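hiii so um. not sure if this is the right channel but i have a protein structure encoded as tokens and i wanna go backwards to a sequence. like what aa goes where. can anyone help
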């Protein structure tokens, strides 16, 4: 079984350090022993685990994480990833400005509130 493909990860997840081979092995065990066949649940947990370990985000990493969400196969989960990045105190101001003119109303709202408080 290729859990990497099954869970719809991209190479960017590895390059950003969100998933490792050890993490994929753990997820494969969960996948095989669980009734949860929603790949986005596994990606979301990996994303949250990673984000909770980040004391501060480099602006480039923040942008890459935001783009990772924009490109996620599950639109709702990807949007949640993007919103999570925008809500962080260390989200770069230029990314907030970019999101403030997004085609997605919820991203515009988050960014606008954050920019008003900068």
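sure thing!! here u go:
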């Amino acid at each position: 079984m290729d859990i990497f493909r099954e869970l719809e990860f991209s190479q960017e997840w590895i390059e950003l350090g969100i998933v490792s081979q050890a993490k994929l092995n753990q997820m494969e065990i969960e996948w095989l022993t669980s009734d949860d066949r929603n790949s986005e649940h596994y990606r979301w947990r990996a994303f949250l685990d990673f984000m909770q370990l980040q004391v501060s985000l480099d602006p480039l990493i923040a942008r890459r994480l935001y783009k990772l969400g924009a490109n996620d196969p599950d639109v709702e989960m990807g949007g949640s990833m993007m919103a999570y990045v925008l809500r962080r105190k260390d989200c770069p101001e230029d990314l907030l400005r970019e999101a403030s003119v997004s085609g997605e109303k919820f991203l515009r709202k988050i960014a606008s509130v954050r920019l008003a408080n900068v």
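oh and The chain has one domain: 3-116.
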